[in-house]
Amino acid sequence: MKLVVLGAGESGVGAAILGKKQNYEVFVSDKGTIAEKYKNVLLQNNIEWEEKQHTEPKIFNADVVVKSPGIPDNVPIVKELIEKGISVISEIEFASRYTNATLIGITGSNGKTTVTNWTQFALKNAGFNSIMAGNIGDSFAKQVASQQAPIYVLELSSFQLDGIVDFKPHIAVITNITEDHLDRYDYKFENYIASKFRITKNQTKDDFLIYDADNKNISNWLANHSIEAKKLPMSFSKLEGDGTYIENENLIITINNTSFNMPTTKIALKGEHNTKNAMAASTVAQLLRIRKQTIRESLESFQGVEHRLENVLKINQVQYINDSKATNINATYYALDSMTSETIWIVGGVDKGNVYEELLPLVNEKVKAIICLGVDNEKIIKAFKNCVEHIVETQSMKDAVNEAYKIAEKGNTVLLSPACASFDLFENYEDRGRQFKESVRNL
After folding, report:
1. What is d(CA 15, CA 4) in angstroms, rounded to the nearest whole number?
2. Is 11 annotated as belonging to a binding site?
3. Same domain as 331, residue 186
4. Model pTM?
């Protein structure tokens, strides 16, 4: 059997390693340059690869093709593969074929990284042998190839879900759905929503879908489509039947006549969005029958995720916060909403169809200066020029942080919350966040 892997990033190389282990004849092809660390892994595993080109005869000779999530479905080589009847799947789909583990799949426009980490934290506290993978850390395929576990907690992006056929999580979570990545979905929001709901498409009545019932996009979709999985809604309003809700500052979970509750004031991470994240993680924990005391302790002591509203340093009584993971408007909305002092906001990058006007009320209320950090900042300037006195354009993180330092006064906050992807000036959002932290430490 011949396996061709398109794209040699984390997921592509993971799929190649797993393919080799499963006795496929593996060929890896990347149109760009392959990073040194991944080249070394391919060489060590004796896997054939090419970069800066796609050798079509070798690719069209495949029995199955694993496509990296970063490659859109409409690129010519992918279209041609599909026309030739060659199966093109995601690495998530490929990996799931070689494990019988219980799968917990977590998707959503925002919060999925926090929920994935928080769920894994609760499982570890309960002594479960579980591995976290997917859109976070090591790829699912690499983990399946190297260390099998009885449970995988998977963060899943819409791009990863687009390439599934039979992938079926026992527990699926949709944290929320807001407009994001519309450039990949023909600028049709309904295509993006449908992509997220692929997480439940193969679930049966023995599986569970945990979802935010307060999110109109989710509840509208569910009102118009039937699913097999048992639904477990989450809401800030009281629910009848099974689900998770908040009442009188108490988090209450009811599943099959067993209930769990704890005061929301004890939840470690603050803000309404984090209350929802806590609700999702604790509902998964309750489904897995983790002891109530362990769930409570896990909600009370979780420290959060790097690059998500991460306090970096306080310098001259100015707090610097790294929210580099905010790659869309909704994530930045949460960030600005949680600010309690005048804020210097660092924003910008590759725009995925953002409507910045949605942030106007918060910018009016909280922001005293905007520092643009992107190759093209025209839309940001146009949206906010009438409500903020200082708007500065910068082309590097060092310059952005230095400008913020000049403007900031005692008691202010400097917030990096870009609302955009990072690929114009940085490798990824982690690189952007680390450069921010380094620049702050060098002040």
Report:
1. 10
2. no
3. no
4. 0.83
